[in-house]
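Quality-control log, excerpt.
Job 1 of 2 completed; input and output follow.
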Amino acid sequence: MKSDSSLEFVTVARVGEIAEGQAKAFEVGDQVVAVFLHGEKYYAIDDMCPHMGASLATGHFDVEQMNVACPWHGWRFDVRDGTWCDNRRIKTDVFAVRLVDDEIQISKNKINSSGTSTVDSGEDKQS
């Protein structure tokens, strides 16, 4: 995964704006990114399902399996690394997440999805 210093971040929300076990979609540059919260950690993947374009942020987030199901046709994606649960070779884009004070920040560019794009919601990082 790219280091924080090589990524450009944008603030999308503040801590508390995304409920535990829920997600919200945010425009980040020219993409829409779905940000999920579970267990005090944030995860960010491309909001658009690659199958037909539905918003993954509006899908069912299964916190036990750590995947989100597309609301249109049920395609499931692991929110930790963007992999499609039915064929792990297919992935959606993953974005780095960091906290600066109470701001949730998402990288403007996707990261290598072999890394985990999470940050503890109780941890403060400074740029």
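Job 2 of 2 completed; input and output follow.
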Amino acid sequence: MRKQQSSISVSGILIRGSLITLKRKCGKPTCSCVDGEMHATPALSYSVKGKTRILTLRSSDVPSIKRALENYRIAVGELEKRALSGIRLMTLHIIKAKKKG
């Protein structure tokens, strides 16, 4: 009897990358993938120091990975808003300093 593996819990985790689908033929001469639809495997594509990496996933992990990818997008968006706010504040500070001096 095979033990059921649980899916990943990523409630507060951030993951950078893209969810992709790898398609391949298994090589068995009697498999339907020889003439028809290839086997599909979900995967996470991400880069480290300019090199693309691929992490194959279980189908049960896809919803958690999607949430973690969305968490990352939200965090980047919030950081971008804070950075732009900082630029606006610094711009106002510089303008005021120029008017005084």
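Post-run check on job 2. The chain has one domain: 18-100.
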